[in-house]
Predict the structure.
Amino acid sequence: MQQPDAAAATPSGASKSLPGTPAAAPPAISTAAPRAPAAAAAAAPAYALPTCKLACVMVGLPARGKTYIARKVARYLTWLGHHSRIFNVGNYRRDAVGAMQPSEFFDPDNEEFARQRAEVAINALNDMIGWLDKLDDDDEKSLSGSLNFQPPSASVREGPLKTPTSATPTQSTRVDEASKKPPGSASTASPGGRPSAAYSSTDHAGGAARVALYDATNSTPERRLFIMEQCREHGIDVMFIESVCDDPKIIVKLSSPDYKGADPEKAVEDFQSRIRFYEKTYQTLDRSEAEGTISFVKLINVGSQVIVNNVRGYIQSRIVYFLMNLNITPRSFYFSRHGESMFNVMQRIGGDASLSPRGEQFAKRLPEIVIRNLGEGTRLTVWTSTLRRTKETARHLHVPKVAWKQLDELDSGVCDGLTYEEIEARYPADFEERDSDKFNYRYHGGESYRDLVHRLEPVILELERHYEPNHSIMIIGHQAVLRAIYAYFLNIPHERLPYIKVPLHTVVKLTPKAYGCEEERFSADIAAVDTHRERGTPLNPSPRLNPSGLAHTHSLAPSSLDVVSPLGRISLNN
Ligand code: F6P
């Protein structure tokens, strides 16, 4: 990575250094003219939404779940349709100096190592500011179409950073894995390292925020002040998220590439020594920082206590609310579509039909599949929609049930009760439009997948909040609804979400892990029609049957090697 041009350091020409590091040549952070919010605001009509640029800066000793939290926040925001990206300083460090560094590398008294660490931290910060500063054309289009958004001045749009790292292809290689998009998706970083917008201008439900997560220890007030100053110069709001764990019973998961292939015992020893080095200078967040202007949320022992200071605005509040619902209780969720319905057999969408005979067979088989899987001593609660086919599917499960209106199938408006062939014949332009942008297409008088995601947010928060050990939740839902929920857990981008395969008569078990999700699928081995239609494919003249699939498929997140340490359980993998 090229270093920022020192001559372009600050308007005054003075280079800035990360506090707590030796003065010897810390890389300068380049700053151009800060944005002029007043001027932009004056030009904008009163009803324009302000752009939200937020840096969530993680704080905490190593192995306090910072990366886990950052990834969850990024995934949640992306699922809601905001732009989010993680800047993980550990990745920058590994790129710069290699993964295998002894714990001494983190000794704050070692000047050379401290300088090297400051350098990578500033590179990550520069890239983050560059990304947040860049309102790319697609973003502007998506906002301006429906909201009369006024783009800020050209100088802001260009991005103030002179460092070539801020918008070069190499930037995307340093972005945290969790925020990468699979190839081919519309929001994949472009060759310029910029994501393109994933939605059209006509169906944008509100201002999309740009939220970066700066994932590092950021363990001293001086460093935090420096980050705040840099961000504020660029009109970027900063909210710190600290994770404090002092409960030795808490399971701390560390999935560090730093110890790939290392002897587990030595790795734990080295890691503990690294933590001791950080403890020398670490100071928890305090409301007096930055002359009392600091915004933060402090999570103590993973949600057992949450301290919120100076948090303002919609996006920050949503993040805090999400964090308040986080917990790390090991649990699994079960999902199944209702049994095949009479409308499925007739290839009609929507409606409130009853189960077909095969659907009824599935309903009867369901208790056997689920109860066998749950194991002894695990309770189950079933959530259904308010529609007949889900309630009928649940009726042989003699467990507590809750019917959620939020879980009702995507509302297909004027197309409700039609076959895809009838929709194509009656509304050819709509049919085509849906195929070209299925996530955003909204049925007349009905909903889009984007609407559905927002409708399902309370369901996701309830699932996240669910903390009782040995108590599982099963959702018996619908094709579109389960696609949206599945996409949240598996971090599937909006463009692919409406095409996720959720076959009938199959139970999906998801077990969230520290850095991913384990998935198992159990087929009931009862044939059913296939309601999945690929983009642009011809319609099926007659209903196809799902072949009765494998009885059980299992896909695993990377396995963990767990080692008990005084901190609790440390998982060394990757
Ligand atoms: O066909 C079953 C169904 O649940 C319909 O009720 C619903 O409109 C449809 O699936 C959603 O799938 P898609 O978005 O692929 O049309």
